[in-house]
Amino acid sequence: MSNKQENNFPKIGAPALRALHVAGYTKLEQFTNVGEEELLKIHGVGPKAIRLLREVMEAEGLSFASTEHLIRGRKPKD
Fold it and tell me: Residues 39, 78, 28, CA angle at the centre, nearest 5°?
């Protein structure tokens, strides 16, 4: 049995992956509640990791939360 935590993230690099796990992110679906700008504030997560996550999320029909949603505290429109 492996100690490796399972996730459905793309290959984004070890530093970004560790940073996201430490911040509590383990599934792509969790990113629908957070904006790209917020993730970029996490040490170890950079523009390349965000781009790779966005590409995989779009392929799965998912997207990051919009900035407007985060500012106003409302759910984004479907």
Answer: 35
